[in-house]
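Structure in, sequence out. Go:
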């Protein structure tokens, strides 16, 4: 059986791997965007994902993880909204045709990775809550103390 800290590191590694997968997918697409969108939407998305990586490492190393995990969850929600905005954005290419920044297939792939990251974070938060409940139970029900011997006079 692994210790709690090992479980946290494992969760952190899972989340980091998924964030890295999403970053790799994004990287291949953003480089082909027009400069305006690359420097605005692309940079913002890179910044959010870099922040998520930092928070993930921080949460894996901290003892009290709840606030860090909540911040990570907030960043994940911001990434979700940003991906939605990117999917709706269109531009006119050099041939005069309207195109989207990402294809519906890319949008689906990014959203699925984002959902998977959210599930890992949610499981990690749930694990923390369960750990806290177990600690409170131990404090509430102390072990039975031995009876004192009656006082003899």
């Amino acid at each position: 059986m692994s210790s709690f800290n090992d479980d946290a590191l494992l969760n952190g590694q899972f989340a980091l791997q998924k964030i890295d997968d999403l970053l790799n997918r994004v990287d291949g697409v953003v480089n082909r965007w027009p400069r305006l969108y690359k420097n605005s939407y692309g940079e913002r998305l890179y910044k959010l994902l870099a922040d998520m990586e930092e928070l993930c490492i921080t949460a894996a190393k901290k003892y009290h993880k709840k606030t860090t995990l909540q911040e990570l969850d907030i960043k994940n929600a911001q990434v979700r909204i940003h991906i939605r905005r990117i999917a709706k954005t269109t531009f006119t290419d050099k041939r005069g045709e309207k195109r989207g920044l990402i294809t519906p297939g890319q949008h689906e792939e990014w959203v699925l990775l984002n959902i998977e990251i959210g599930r890992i974070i949610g499981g990690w938060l749930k694990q923390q809550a369960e750990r806290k409940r177990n600690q409170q139970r131990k404090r509430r029900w102390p072990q039975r103390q031995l009876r004192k011997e009656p006082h003899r006079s």
